[in-house]
Each structure stands twice: as structure tokens, then as C-alpha cells.
Amino acid sequence: MNVRNLLQNLKIETRAYINGEFVESSSGAKIKKFSSIGGEPLPEITACNENDVNLAVTAAKNAFKDWAALTPLDRKNILLKLADLMEENRQELALLDTYETGRAYKNYFYDSIPKSIEAIRYFAESVDKYYDKAIPARGSEFGVIVRVPLGVVGAITPWNDPLVVSAWKFAPALLMGNTVVIKPAEQSSLSLLKVAALSKIAGIPAGVFNVVPGYGEIAGKALALHNDVRGIFFTGSSEIGKQIMIYAGQSNMKKVALECGGKGPYIVTKNCGDISESAKVLAENMFYNQGQICSAPSRVIVDESKLNEFVECLKIECEKFVPGDSFDDENNVGCVVSDEQFKKVQNYIEIAKNEGAEVYQAKTKKPHSEKARCIQPTIIINPALDSKVTTEEIFGPVVVILPVKSTAEALEVANNSKYGLAGAVFTDNIDEAYSVAKNLEVGLVHINSYGNDDNSAPFGGVKESGLGKDKSTYAFDEYSDLKTIWLHSRK
Ligand code: NAP
Fold it and tell me: How far apart are the CA of 342 and the centre of ligand 1, in A?
């Protein structure tokens, strides 16, 4: 069934959500853009400026004291209510995200939106089990180490998984007693504005949760530079992540956490007994959102003895991820997000061809629209180690395959990257698996699997993939400061 018609029934909110109300920007500016599914203009969204961000931060500052004074149980119940409301509105949230980003509706409805709801429930259920610590009494001295909220927290999010990444940030931030101002990506603001409307129904008081859509270099920059914002939590490219650190230094030395790009190493050793399974898992994790996934295993490092078998298996798996109409609820894969992204990815494929690497693309379906921006799953075999396609994050359905002579060489190639987000090793040898996992310079390693971890697993990279962790109870540490209270008893 094609679900595009359901859009007609929606009343789409495009205004900023500040201090509990939907408002236009003081400048009246709008974000104008076109669908990558059919080329038509998308709803114009309010583009906030520095003024609007100031209003949102002031509202959040004023709301902080009362929100922080609630008990964790009170905040938990409100966030659980929000999760329930999102579940009731799951279809609408999936439609809005599909409409704006071009990712397949099926993928949003069955995977991404449920994951964002599960994340909120996980954090809500965890927060009142999260204890402070005590320093054992020593004579008349006694200390407690407590976690205190930061105050107003800013969040800046990308377009590739709008509600999952937002929930990873706003849920632990709110639950720890902070108030939040969030700047979604200009390509994906509608679903978060719907969540803002639901937050009011859930009972989140005015000023506690604010959404300021707009351009990064205006609204995002104003948020990251704001002196009343005490922490800035960013997910996006490494390039902008570095800029966020500069903003923090230029303003009030606010706390910074960054979830940035990746070029995930996926090592298949000579001891891997099930090559077909390793190719299947790779395709599932590489191609489902047209490769627009920060942790995508986009650098396969395979023992040369297994190369041919792996490539043949992967070619078969690629056919399951051929893109099509994002609104067709039978399609697993939709379009890339924008014309700009489409051209960027095509350019990398051209670079590989011009450099003489072997390039394989899955067979093409007739596009549902001449204006559709879809790219076939693409395999680049044996590009140069210093080629841009090997070293840079392509953020498209393009995987490079690098043959190596040994597992030691595989590790060397894997770690020769500025990125370090997630990786994997496929082997039947437990000693080899452990050794590779230990020595891979990444924040998360899978052994004989990929991407099947859950909310209990901290997520975040090393090197230029960022700093700090999303997910798990460790996320609560990010959205709070440690404070020591030392007591001296006079008796
Ligand atoms: P991006 O261009 O870095 O943008 C991310 C966010 O930053 C957007 O909201 C953007 O606003 C904003 N921004 C841009 N310039 C800014 C500035 N000067 N000051 C403050 N904010 C600014 O990244 P993207 O293209 O949206 O997303 C793709 C990237 O995100 C990839 O590199 C991917 O690996 C990474 N990512 C990482 C993770 C992770 O968990 N590690 C998860 C998802 C994505 P605009 O929308 O207006 O540009």
C-alpha cells in the first residue's frame, strides 16, 4: 500500500515551540526545501534566529528551578506518558519523517520510531534506580557524591535518524532535572515539533522543553554560544562537532558532548566460518537507510583468502536493499535526504571509478519518479588505502572492501582512520575475536554481529567520532555534574 495519501489527513505544525507555545520566528524567516522522493516543495518551517533562541533559553532558565525540584519519580511518569503518546501517534511520526527525509516509511514505522519510544522508556524506567555515592565515614567525617543537573541544556541533532537521536538526548537530560532547548536539523524538524505538541499533553510544563528549528549556522550557533546554556550536546559531522567545541570555548566553557561521523571497520578474518552470514549482516547494517548511518560498517577489511566468496555473497544481499518509493509500505529502502547529499555520494562513486577501483552496483529498479533521489547499493573493491573513498565518511549506500593478508594487517588498516565510532570482527576463533575487539580503536565492537545492541549499551566514539556517550545509564552522567558534599560532625 502507498501511504502518501495519509499525509492529507495531517495538520502539520511548522512553527517553533518556545515556552509552551507554537510561535513564528521574530524575523518571519522560513526553511524552504524540496522532497527527495518526488521533488515537490515541502512545508516551510520556521527558521529561528538568535532572538528566538534567546527567548527559548530564557524560558528554559525560568522553568529550571521548578522542574529540577520534582522527584525523579514525577519526571519518570511524565516521560512515560510522553512515550505512550508517541506510540499512539506512531503512524503520524513515521509519515512526517518519511515526508521530510525520504527514508522508507516501513523503516520508520517498524524500526526508528519504536526505537525512539523504547529509548525514552528505558531512561524513564532507569532514572529512579540511579543512585548517588557515599564516601565511607571516617571518624567524624562523611562525604556524599551527588549528581546535579546542569541547568539549561542545548541539543543539536542531525537528519538521518531524527527522533532516535533526539530522544537519546532530551530524555536523559529532562529526567536528570535539566530543561532543554533543541535545534533539529533543517532537513528533519517536523516529527520533533509533533513531539513538542505531545510533550504539552504529557504534562511537561511550559519552558521545560523547547524546539527551535532553523539553520545550523544561525540557530545552532546561537544555542552553542549562549552563556546561559550549561551543556551542549551535539550529533552530526566531525567538522561541525569541532566548531561546537570552539563555541563552548568562546562562550562560557559549557559542557560538551559530541557524537560525530564514522567509517566503521568490519573485519572478516580467515577464521570466519560463515561468510554468507557476515555478508548478510553487513548489508543489513550498511544499506537500510541508503547508508546514511553514522555507525554504518562502511570499511570491510577482509582476509584475501575469503575475498571472492565474501564479495559474491554481498552482491546477492545488495539486491534486498534496492531503493524505491519511500511511501510504499512494502519497500525497505527509500531515498537519500536531499539533492546535495545525492550529488555528494555520486561524486564519491565517480572518484572510485576514475581511480580504477572495481565498482559494483545492485541492479536498478525503474525509479518511481524522475525526481527521486535514490542510489543503488554500491561496492567498491580494493580502492587505494589513501583514496578519499577509503578514508572519508561517504554517508551513502557505498561500502569499500579492502583485502588484507593477515589479521594483524586488518587491525592496522582498521585503526588507520581519523574515526573511531563502531566496528566488528567476524571470526570463529575466540582468542582472535577478543584480541581484535580489545585493540580496535572504536567506542563499540561487535563480535560476529552488528547493530543488535540495545539501550543498555553506551554509544559514542573515540578520535574524531566524538566524546561522551549516548544511551545506557552512563548518559545520565553526561547530563549532570558531580558535586561532593563533605560533612564534619561536631559530635
Ligand atoms: P551536520 O551538517 O554536522 O549537522 C548536524 C546539526 O548541526 C544540524 O542540526 C545542523 O543544522 C547543525 N549545524 C550545522 N552547522 C552548525 C553550526 N555552525 N553551529 C551549530 N550547529 C550547526 O550533520 P548532518 O549532515 O545533519 O548529519 C550527518 C552527520 O551526522 C554524519 O557525519 C553522521 O556520521 C553524523 N551522525 C552521527 C551520529 C552518532 O551518534 N555518532 C548519529 C547520526 C549522525 P542544519 O541542519 O541547519 O545544517
Answer: 16
For residue 468, is it left (φ>0), alpha (ψ between -120 and 50) or beta? left
Question: Using CA atoms, how far apart are residues 491 and 488, in angstroms rounded to an integer?
Answer: 9
364 confidence band (pLDDT: 50, 70, 90): confident
Q: Is 294 a catalytic residue?
A: yes
Handedness of CA 48, 240, 185, 113 (dihedral sign): negative
Give the pLDDT confidence of 165-180 residue by residue, as tens digits. Answer: 999 999 999 999 999 9
Checking if the pLDDT of 202 tops 80, the result is yes
Residues with Cβ within 6 A of ligand 1? 156-161, 165, 183, 185-187, 215-217, 220-221, 224, 235-237, 240, 243, 259-262, 294, 393, 395, 421, 466
CA 98 from centre of chain: 16
CA count, 13 A, side-chain hemisphere, 185: 22
Q: What are phi and psi of 21, to 5 degrees?
A: -130, 150
C-alpha cell read off for 353: 571509478
Q: What pTM, to 2 d.p., does this model score?
A: 0.97
Going from the Cα of 157 to the center of ligand 1, the distance in angstroms, rounded, reads 6
What are phi and psi for residue 23, nearest 5 degrees?
-140, 155
- SS3 state of residue 240: helix
DSSP reduced 3-state for 16? strand
Q: Assess whether 318 carries a catalytic annotation.
A: no
